[in-house]
Amino acid sequence: MQPIFSRLAAASLLVLGLHAGPAAHAASVNGVTISEDAIAQATQAAGLPDTPQAREAMKQQLIARELFRQEANKDKALEKRPEVQALLQEARNQVLTQAWLKDRIKPEPVTDAQVRARYDAIVASLGAMEYKTRVIELADDAAAAKALARIKAGEDFGKVAQDVSLAPTRTSGGALDWISFKVPAQEGRTQSLPLPIAEAISTLPAGAVSPVPVAWNERRYLVKVDALRPTQVPPYDAAAPGIRQALQAQALERATVALVTSLLTKAKITQ
Q1: What is the pLDDT of residue 24?
Q2: 128 and 226 in a common domain
């Protein structure tokens, strides 16, 4: 259910936005300033296009929010409510925790050399062809047989995936991103695909479905290759930002784990 504040703010945005002008300038609400920078930041945070109309609409929402805040502050009995006190304490704890973590977690910086090395390793792992595939994950042989029978009878592979697949990709009809690996496929060199599935993919022509279910990790899989093409290697400059972001996320995770491990060694925990 949408929180009451969000619904009220949205209603105010709709009403006040009817009179939105072409540009958003700073506003003052009973002496409290809403700056143009605050409007721009809120517009960006909401994922809205940076247009005069979007900024003006966001300004009206910020005005409504400030009006709500001011009226809430006038009700001195609110802070005495136990449930409000609990929420305020939780909010305070979260702010302090985030500030403490920001000070304590210092991941190692990612260097240009590391980004280049990762790019080169990815390029070296690619095969001559890349595949656009769909996969249906099923619980057992019986379920796989029923799904395969539907496909052989003419049903669309993606529709069957949406109906019966156990994988998170069911909503997209079992579709995977383009993927490339060297053939014959080898364990640990299949871009995180399970080896039996990669082996099945590499043997199928475009438009074909695996003739029998693929067994892996106590599940059964049906595989379809939608299309094949020569592997397209993005230039380094185009790939580098994404690689750097991934390496930074890994560095952050390592630093976080190290901090947690350090705290655990000093803590007295009973379970």
Answers
A1: 58
A2: yes
Q: How far apart are CA 143 and CA 220, in angstroms?
A: 8
For residues 129 and 231, give the distance between their C-alpha atoms in angstroms, rounded to a whole number: 5
Report the distance separating Cα 196 and Cα 198, nearest Å: 5
Helices (H), the chain: 4-17, 36-45, 52-74, 82-104, 112-125, 141-152, 157-164, 195-203, 236-266
Record the tokens describing residue 97, joined without a space.
């925790």
Per this entry, what is the length of the chain? 271
Check pLDDT > 60 for residue 23. no
Measure CA of the first residue to CA of the last residue in the chain; give whole Å.
34
Rounded to whole angstroms, the Cα distance separating 113 from 120 reads 10
222 and 131 in a common domain: yes
Task: Indicate whether 193 pLDDT > 50.
Answer: yes
pLDDT 10s digits, 245-255: 999 999 999 99
- pTM > 0.70: no
State which residues form the domain around 50: 4-81
Among 44-48, 137-141, 200-204, whose mean pLDDT is lowest?
44-48
Encode pLDDT of 31-78 as tens digits: 999 999 999 999 999 998 989 899 999 999 999 999 999 999 999 999
Tell me the torsion sign for CA atoms 193, 195, 197, 200.
Answer: positive
Residues 120, 211: one domain? yes
Residue of 187, 224, 220, 182 whose CA lies nearest to 205: 224
Residue type, 7: R
